[in-house]
Amino acid sequence: MELDQVWEKVVSMLSEEISAVSFNSWIKPIEAVRMTDSKIILEVPYSVNKNMIMTKYHSLIESCIETVTSKKRAIEVLVSEEIQSDNADPLREESTLNPRYTFDNFIVGSKNKIAYVAALAVAEAETPMRNYNPLFFYGGSGLGKTHMLQAIGNYYLENHPKKKVLYTTSEKFTYELVSAIRDKNNQSFRNKYRKVDLLLIDDVQFFANQEFAQEELFHTFNALYDKEKQIVLTSDRLPSEIPQLEERIKTRFSSGIVIDVQPPDYETRMAILKSKLQSEYLEVGDDIVAYVADNIKSNVRELEGAVKRIVLYAGIKRTNHITMDIAKEALTDIMKSQPRRRITAQLIISEVEKYYMLPKGSLVSPKRSRDVAYPRQVAMYICREILDDPSFPKIGESFGGRDHSTAMHNVDKIKKELTDNSELRTVVDEIITNIKRD
Ligand code: ADP
Ligand code: MG
């Protein structure tokens, strides 16, 4: 089949897959220029078209091509503007924003919801809301801070194409400052950083110890703040916890809104996995997704790693249908490095105490008031239900040396109550979930 015919078929398939508006904006302008055995080269007018295709339609187009030609071909997208002249979209060039990171492909869950809402609010505002400047995100590695920071920039630029956005890291800022000083070029450094509408600085914890960078940062910050320009910062810890950072900078960093980003909970991990697997066109059953979500917990980067492994194995096995065996095989190495939380009586006790908001140690204390005795019975019941070795003497022993008949009696009591108290069942299940998942 000739390229023209192939492309015509692909386009007609695409028109059925995506909305008319998106089709007209992003698919119609594409011109197919060349087809080889392994790829098809496409040309689009602007880099924004290319960005859109690479972020949103890339896999869809490739799978349509495969359907039409019965052969896997990668697409390569060229921008005509770039082909003709070299200065494609100077604004974006300067901002080094990565179009891969958008709000659209950011999965929101209970642990990042506040951060997401704040990020979107800032991205939507043309001029900063006073309380949100600066916006400071902190949290562990791989939890989506850079993603959100970049998404703010991309979103803002999309809605305000005339505005200037600058994304940088503390290291790049420091490096550029050093070069500017060396080349006696301070003014152009200042022009670059102080004449933007939105400044995004990633990983500010690395300003620790960089005294002259801190000095420059301080003035940059003030200049932008005074002109009511938005500043967004990320760090792996609270401003107050960054070592060797001047007090006045800590104060500036904390003067707007400081929001923590936490590791995703189970539901969010499921959602993230499903979304990433779906964009790879892999069929993966819920039980397998649950298996991964159960075992990989600490951050999103690792979840992505798991998806990449599964994709790799799907390729090796030449299938789009992932079975549990394939998933397990693909993930053996990753799983090995996961810290496993061993379920012990102590863990159960501490989760039950947390659930009922009791002081630590309450359940193993001699206290017998109902507010403690009842949660203790629940905890004993859970021990019996989920421990590997749930003998009554052991359970009694774990609760401050109580004897086995007490343990047996308590477990029985809860077991009976569970038969007609569905609310208690929910409570018990919730506690067990907490024990197993985090
Ligand atoms: P951090 O900057 O906090 O270390 P990143 O923003 O680099 O983390 O995130 C690591 C990877 O996980 C990136 O590829 C990012 O796109 C992805 N990611 C993180 N959080 C989410 C989320 N909520 N939804 C979808 N992808 C996410
Ligand atoms: Mg980051």
Describe the structure.
This protein is of the alpha/beta class and 438 residues long. The chain contains 20 helices and ten strands. The chain has helices spanning 3-17, 20-27, 47-69, 80-84, 90-95, 113-124, 145-159, 170-182, 186-194, 211-226, 247-253, 266-278, 286-295, 300-316, 324-336, 345-355, 370-386, 392-398, 404-420, 422-437, and strands at residues 31-35, 39-44, 74-79, 135-139, 165-169, 198-202, 230-235, 257-261, 283-284, 321-322. The strands form three sheets. The protein has a five-stranded parallel beta sheet, with helices on both faces. A three-stranded mixed beta sheet has the order 1-2-3. Strands 9-10 form a two-stranded parallel sheet. The longest helix has 23 residues, at 47-69. The two termini are 54 Å apart. The model is unreliable at 84-94 (pLDDT under 50). The protein binds adenosine-5'-diphosphate and magnesium ion. Residues 101, 105-107, 112, 141-147, 272, 300-301, 304 line the site of adenosine-5'-diphosphate.
How many strand segments? Answer: 10
**How would you spell out the order of helices and strands?**
HHEEHEHHHEHEHHEHEHEHEHHEHHHHHH
From the N-terminal CA to the C-terminal CA, the straight-line distance is 54 Å
Poorly predicted segments? 84-94
Radius of gyration: 28 Å
What characterizes the major β-sheet?
A: 5 strands, parallel
Structural class: alpha/beta
β-strand percent reads 5-15%
Number of helices: 20
The general outline is flat
Bound molecules: adenosine-5'-diphosphate, magnesium ion
In percent, how helical is the residue content? 55-70%
Strand order of the largest sheet: 5-6-7-4-8
User: Mean of the pLDDT scores?
Assistant: 89
